[in-house]
Every structure is written in structure tokens, then in C-alpha cells.
Write a structure and sequence with these properties.
globular, about 40% helix, alpha/beta, 5 helices, 5-stranded parallel beta sheet, about 130 residues, Rossmann fold
Length: about 130
């Protein structure tokens, strides 16, 4: 058995934390991203997501902005304090990009975001761009 055996070639799997209080959307996106060979963990609000970020290392975070308990922007700032390397690995998904509470956050932090409803291909492309 040789180490160059093609059967043993490994695909590097990227771990993504998906944070959205819309359980149906989160579940659908989990399947879609898993199809693209991403390992996807789900949290349904910012507080649950923060616990996961403290416990696990993720390569990227896809995060809704308007959520109960801890909004996406607040979660981002806390997650960045815990895992600074994640700061430029966030993609926000929101239906509220023009909201006066949200727009300044998106601009000030120069973060990537997609406005709901967005094409799934757009999200996949955006995620892949994080790793190129």
C-alpha cells in the first residue's frame, strides 16, 4: 500500500457555523452546504452560537442579523473577541440591510452580507471566496 494511493486522497472539509432563527431555512442551507462538502453546525440564535464558537473552531460563520436573545451584530462582536481569526470569515444574511439599526453595522465592520431572499448559488460562491 502506497501513500500516494488515490483512494486515500483527502478532501479538506471546512467547518461552518450557520446561525438563523428560521429553522426551515437553516435546515435547507445545511443540506445545500453539506452537498458542497462543508461540515455545517447550526445554532438558532446568537447566544447558542456564542457557546458553539467558544467550544469549537469554525472556518466560517453564516449568520442572520435579526434574531431573538442575541442579534447577529452583537454575536459578531462577541465572537470576534473570542476568536479574532473569524472576524473576516462572517457572511451575514438579512432581510434588513437598509434598517437604520443594521446598515451602520454592515458598513462600519466592512462585512460580507447577502440580502434575503438570495440565490443559493450566491451564498455558495460567497462561502467559497472566503477560502480562496
Amino acid at each position: 500500500m502506497h501513500s500516494s494511493d488515490p483512494v486515500l486522497s483527502t478532501v479538506e472539509l471546512r467547518a461552518i457555523l450557520l446561525v438563523d432563527d428560521d429553522k426551515q431555512l437553516a435546515s435547507a442551507l445545511q443540506w445545500i452546504l453539506a452537498d458542497e462538502n462543508f461540515l455545517v453546525d447550526i445554532a438558532f440564535d446568537g447566544e447558542e452560537a456564542l457557546l458553539k464558537v467558544r467550544a469549537h473552531e469554525y472556518d466560517a460563520v453564516i449568520c442572520d442579523l435579526m434574531m431573538p436573545r442575541l442579534r447577529g451584530d452583537e454575536f459578531y462582536l462577541k465572537a470576534k473577541a473570542v476568536r479574532p481569526e473569524l472576524a473576516d470569515r462572517f457572511i451575514f444574511i438579512t432581510g434588513f440591510a437598509a434598517d437604520p439599526k443594521i446598515a451602520p453595522f454592515l458598513t462600519a465592520n466592512n462585512v460580507k452580507y447577502l440580502v434575503k431572499p438570495f440565490p443559493v448559488e450566491g451564498l455558495i460562491t460567497c462561502v467559497k471566496q472566503l477560502f480562496t
